[in-house]
Write a structure and sequence with these properties.
mainly alpha
Amino acid sequence: LPLSRARNPPSGSVHSLFSKLSCCVYWCFAIAPSTSPSVPTVERMEETRKSYHSELEDLRSLVVRLGASVIEAIPRATNVLLSGDLEGADYLVQSDDEIDARAHDIEDRTFEILALQAPVAGELRQLVSILKITSDLERSADLAVNICKAARRIYGKEIDPVLRGLISKMSEQAEQLFQAAINSFAENDAA
């Protein structure tokens, strides 16, 4: 049956209904997949999945970089406290805004993936871990800022040598723990 005749059959007949049905079937299976962007194809689904996994890896690397920034802040804050370096204190206080912005960006991107991709199982656990780790890193950076603010308050006062030693040891241990935690996250090592 020629296509022009199928579009204009005599109305009210079985032939008319059959022609309309065949046109609909033809459109759905022959024309629509090649022209409609809303009909998913295997290629589009694979591309979306690759993009999704790429976004997960980007988030993981952003968390690792945020962790590295916090790890760098620990000895700096300790040095500020022990040496009374007010310029160093100002630098750390000002750099906290950047860490906060990066943390919020990671959280926003994570929530976007949760909303759009509806992850399950391991991927869902990764995203929840990213949210929790990011929040803890941002809070740790805030605590480094609190140390700098305390250093401003006690500026000019001498810290007892025993206390200096304890503060130095605590700083080293905190740095080691953060480094081990970030390495574990980067290597996907739950142990």
